[in-house]
Write a structure and sequence with these properties.
Layout (H helix, E strand, L loop, with lengths): L20 H21 L8 E6 L10 E6 L37 H21 L10 H28 L1 H11 L23 H22 L5 H39 L4 H6 L5 H17 L7 H9 L19 E8 L2 E8 L4 H26 L24 E2 L5 E2 L1 H11 L3 H10 L31 E2 L4
Antiparallel strand pairs: 1-2, 1-7, 3-4, 5-6
Helix pairs in contact: 1-3, 2-3, 2-4, 3-4, 3-6, 5-6, 5-8, 5-10, 6-10
Keywords: Oxidoreductase
EC number: 1.14.13.208
InterPro entries: Aromatic_CoA_ox/epox, Benzoyl_CoA_Oase_BoxB, Ferritin-like_SF, RNR-like
Length: about 475
């Protein structure tokens, strides 16, 4: 009998892992390093706990959401591709209508590898960013949701590593190892994308991250799901089923903070932020500043507004528009797209060739999707007669990537001097005092399933039909 550490039982999959000895050998070499990384950089102090987690064991509706208690190091990190689409053809670009690729074309090898590595790098990065959050959890329900997000980011890493090992030979194996060697926020070996090096050490940041940054992940996955490289398309299509839960955690998490603050404001007839803080709640202006930070960091993840790389990705069929089927012109050779640019210290609208604007088209859809979440939070405030509205800052605000990275703008998008921005910075972005106050609310974890932190309301329902006060995490020894 084989003693391999890699098997269909330990790694549920639909990629014929049992019949692919070469892939087994590659993963057998990689898996121990992954486990070491998880134990070193995964949720600190909770490795022996039994956690009520969802595990994907197949792509069928009754298999991809299997719930049971599991210790996180023993989680079954599956490799799944969405079902193949018969006779699928390339949906966009110069090769529109031709059969999709089952192998990597040599001329696109380096570019495809870089796309997969960049996506893959975000998965362990977010686990590293969030590794200490369990020690300040507002409830056992939230603790479980944090761990669910973490293990699924780990599974998404496996998904990208599967592609690297299966289709990119030695280069892919080396890239897979490097994914475990970089560290979020490390000065010498940081993660590839800026937002994934930002500290995420409190629960307001975590909920903003899962709302804004994981939503960027959704749109990147939607764009990659259109790829002419069919294994990448099928991998990302399945990942989207899990990404939805991460955004749910963010949207409802922020919503529950908003609900608690609004409830206390209405009950106590409070209008001033300092008075809200006296009640042990998170004031709305502070929430807006955190929103400004994570939204602007997430906007950067889409890349430059005018991009020859984006044009090339589209032309060659590597990365398309989200839900390409809804567009009429799948070649995008003739159209233009209006983009605001900075010229001579002022804003001017420029018509950009459509292919060069693909990042901005994706960003536009992201912005509209974010606004729907803010609309929900604003309806909560209105229901409690609170006169405050959350707003998305202008996309020129606090940018570090693209055509706005060299200018300073206020949240309305008005261009200002660097000195003016520095003077007003703490009005628009979290100050050290804000962070200190947020930390003061989150000094101790709540491990009693029947309790909830004062600064957040209880969710409307629990997980998988269980009550909110269910023992979602059974504390172990470490």
């Amino acid at each position: 009998m084989s003693t391999t550490a890699i098997s269909d039982e330990k790694i549920p999959n639909n990629v014929n892992l049992a019949g692919d000895r070469k892939l087994q050998r590659a993963l057998e070499a990689w898996q121990p390093n992954f486990v070491s990384w998880w134990k070193e950089m995964g949720p600190y102090g909770f490795q022996t706990d039994d956690v009520y987690l969802r595990t994907a064991i197949s792509v069928e509706s009754d298999g991809w959401a299997h719930f049971n208690y599991v210790k996180m190091p023993d989680y079954r990190w599956g490799i799944f591709l969405a079902p193949a689409v018969a006779d699928r053809t390339i949906g966009f670009g110069d090769n529109f209508g031709e059969p999709v690729w089952q192998q990597v074309p040599g001329e696109h090898r380096n570019t495809l590898r870089r796309l997969i590595v960049t996506q893959g790098d975000t998965e362990p990065a977010s686990v590293e960013q969030q590794r200490m959050l369990g020690h300040t959890c507002p409830s056992v329900y939230d603790l479980r949701n944090l761990f669910q997000v973490n293990v699924e980011e780990g599974r998404h890493l496996w998904a990208m590593v599967y592609l690297l090992h299966s289709y990119f030979g030695r280069d892919g194996r080396e890239e897979a190892e490097a994914l475990l060697m970089r560290r979020s926020g490390d000065r010498d070996t940081p993660r590839i994308l800026g937002a994934f090096n930002e500290p995420c050490t409190d629960w307001l940041s975590f909920f903003m991250f899962t709302f804004f940054t994981d939503r960027d992940g959704k749109f990147q996955l939607l764009a990659l799901a259109e790829s002419a490289f069919d294994p990448l398309s099928r991998t990302t299509r399945f990942m989207l089923t899990e990404e939805a839960h991460h955004m749910f955690v963010g949207e409802t998490g922020v919503g529950r903070i908003v609900e608690r603050t609004a409830e206390l404001m209405e009950k106590n007839k409070v209008t001033h932020p300092d008075d809200v803080r006296k009640l042990g709640a998170i004031d709305l202006p502070t929430m807006q500043r955190y929103l400004n930070l994570w939204y602007s960091l997430s906007l950067d993840l889409f890349g430059g507004e005018i991009s020859s790389n984006a044009a090339s990705f589209f032309a060659t069929g590597l990365k398309g528009r989200a839900k390409e089927d809804k567009y009429e012109d799948h070649r995008a050779l003739d159209g233009t797209y209006a983009i605001d640019v900075v010229k001579d210290g002022a804003i001017a609208t420029e018509q950009v060739p459509l292919r060069n604007a693909m990042n901005e088209i994706l960003r536009d859809e992201y912005v509209a999707d974010c606004q729907r979440g803010l609309d929900k939070w604003n309806r909560q405030l209105a229901a409690h007669n609170v006169e405050f509205k959350f707003e998305l800052p202008n996309r020129r605000f606090h940018r570090h990537i693209g055509i706005y990275s060299d200018i300073n703008a206020d949240p309305s998008g008005k261009l200002i001097s660097a000195a003016d921005f520095a003077q007003r910075r703490e009005d628009w972005l979290p100050s050290e005092k804000d962070k200190e106050y947020i930390r003061s609310l989150m000094q101790h974890p709540i491990f009693d399933p029947k309790q909830m932190a004062n600064w957040i309301s209880a969710p409307k329902q629990g997980i998988k039909g269980r009550p909110v006060d269910f023992e979602y995490v059974r504390r172990g020894e470490g």
